[in-house]
Amino acid sequence: MSSSTQLAPWTRSGLVLARTATGDGSVVVGDPCIVWDPEIGGWRMILFYAPPGHGQSHSPDPTGAPGTWTDPEPLVFTNPEVLPPGGGTHKPFVVMDAARPNRAAHVDGRYWLVSVVHDANSARKRAHRAWSTSLAGPWTFEEGDLIPVGEPGAFDDNHVDVVSGYWFEERQEWLYYYMGCPLTPRPWAHTPFGSAIGFATQRPGEPAVKGGIALEPSRTPGHWASGYLGGLQLLPGKEHRWVGVINASPTPPDRDGHLTSEEPAPCLGGLVWTDDEWPVSGWRFADEPLEWVADIPQDARAAGEEFNLWRQHVLALEGESRLFYNSGYYGVEQMYAKTIDLSRL
Fold it and tell me: Is the pTM of this model over 0.85?
């Protein structure tokens, strides 16, 4: 894959899951994570569904086409009392087998779910982990943080956000990626409050260990990923060892307190890659994002695709695959998809 290669050609599939008028799912329907569920013989989508912040849907269609997904329902947790007072969990992600896209890792007889927990008292986010013997749940939270907020001065001393996880069978180790948001200015002159993608590792029976920054914002001002970085989906590549699908922005956060100050528009989707065997270093950005918001056609804008193209997630299929993402103004988002060609990645 060269620096100019995109997931092209692609075409829009349209709206996949819409926000509801009231109640559950009336704010955000997005941040998808899709895995094959052998119990139902179909795809199960775990997603950011707010309120309450988490949900699941499923599709019997082998391509995950729009119109085949059930209305989302909140996840069920056996012990929600372990969450911080006044807080909840959101942006869930099923831990995947790193070698097999869209296949959940089954480790020690369990499936594993990572999510972001908000502490109403400290206003900080951090990552938790839960387990279940079924992808349908119910899920049981482990005690304590999986990945805590960093120490003062660290790149993640404000939030640990947008977490994803992968199991490496040959290493007997989990690798987690997350959006590390700084409270203390970083030494990146063009984006001192820009988030980076951090990583942590974990072996069964042991606590997770932070490893630092896997990918920092581009040092080129105006680059599509020079402002802040969000979630990362890991895929085994063909031309490169690993390919990542991320969301990012060219706009530096200003932390002036308004709603979008930590993740200003436009949020975009794009590709990164590394040839390192252990994918925590050596990452490079594509020159361009998958699509600039300014290039969204008018009919798609009329259907709600505007302002931002949030967290991107590939359902890897034989032949054409499908790219899912949420679009809309911050906190007013619903889910869309494109069909894409992964054959050159």
Answer: yes
